Write a sequence for this structure.
């Protein structure tokens, strides 16, 4: 099959714009658990539509991360001074 990466039972179409964790692991040639840990640590840029839902990884981000270490639009994470806006609003605070 032309344009397909296969690793075990996961077959990734070359034209796929967004990948699941299993598909991204097949492209990166690592275990699914390893890819999930990379995603959850922020090493690989991924998104969830809802908290606890499926992770989706843009193919472009994964390729940039594999080549250079980070995708071009990923910002470094800040620790310590992150504000939970939802908690602030529930408490009656403004912006």
């Amino acid at each position: 099959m032309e344009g397909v990466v296969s690793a075990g039972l996961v077959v990734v179409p070359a034209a796929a714009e967004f990948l699941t964790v299993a598909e991204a692991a097949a492209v990166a040639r690592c275990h699914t658990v390893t890819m999930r840990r990379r995603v959850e640590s922020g090493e690989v840029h991924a998104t969830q539509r809802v908290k606890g839902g499926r992770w989706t990884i843009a193919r472009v981000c994964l390729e940039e991360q594999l080549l250079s270490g980070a995708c071009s639009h990923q910002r470094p994470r800040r620790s310590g001074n992150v504000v939970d806006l939802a908690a602030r609003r529930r408490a009656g605070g403004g912006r």
